[in-house]
Fold:
Amino acid sequence: MKITRIETIPVEVPLKQGMTTKTAHGEHIVSPYVILRVHTDEGLTGLGEATVAPRWSGETSASCKAAIRDLVDPALKGEDPADVNRLCGVMDEVVKLNPFTKAGVEMALWDLAGKRAGKPLYQLLGGKVRQEIPMKMVVGAFDVPTSVALAEKFLQWGVQCLKVKVGLDPGEDLERVRAVRALAGPEIRMSIDANCGWPPAVARRMLHLLEPLDILFAEQPMAPQFDDEAALIRTGTTIPIMADESVFTPHDAMQTALRRSADIISVYPGKNGGIGQTLGISHVAGAAGLRCHMGSNLELGIATAAMLHVAASVECVDSETYPGDLLGPLYHEGDMIETPLELGPVHAKVPEGPGLGVTLDEAQIEHWKDAS
Structure:
């Protein structure tokens, strides 16, 4: 089998009314992503999704299209898509960085490998270590009444774990978390995510004030440039610290372990540059005695399916302790796949079909295609 071309399909999918989210990075209202199809000379097609995000990696829909058209497609054309690891190396040779773009291509290669073998991706990754994956829903950093109303909606769905966004105004952050905890009660697990928003002194003070609220973990309290101080922050609180924006690569994971700056590392294929890199980070974390958590960039259906396969097959991605952010399709007006994924409200399930186990919905693609 040989790759004949890589097709890029830019889409713009809005979030549902009342389901937009807000973080220290800004407000997420619409998702300008890129759906990928890797075509082959045997008629099989692999699906991928680049959840490009300029606030995360500097990538845009236009830059993804250009990188694939001008660099990746010429380099991979004529290659056997089964050589996933080697072709990831080829991508690294022709273009640096661009993790979400590379992850979308690698995702499609894995999808082809599973379709060719007639097996779900999780079997190619070594098989399931869990049959279902605990998950949570995220409450954006809105004003307190809006945040409480969103949390109440999720609790009415039956959600058992919440994550509350903070990292903006410390006083409002504290009020928001206290209000959601008062609504949820002591039985609901609850974490916070500052998305790099607190300076070290503020992080230290806020974590101390949040300790009585039984916080499951505090995600990325400070920006990566403060990682040298993160170990002191971590040892100064009883709340477990999760690294997200600080860890894109296995090398970043190694530095986090050496600094002892986090208890948990948030992983997901888009941020990490592919499933292989996510596995690499998980291996580093596991060897260092850390746990991993499945994060999110509010993916659509294809990338969420890839995340489910990883979460189901990697023991170190400890969703039992730290439920995953397997939620992107629930926030969007469309998911781009024919059959919706089984997402919660308490547990998600991995698709069972060959490859990623999802089929592109051509009607949705036509509806949400970005014609610009």
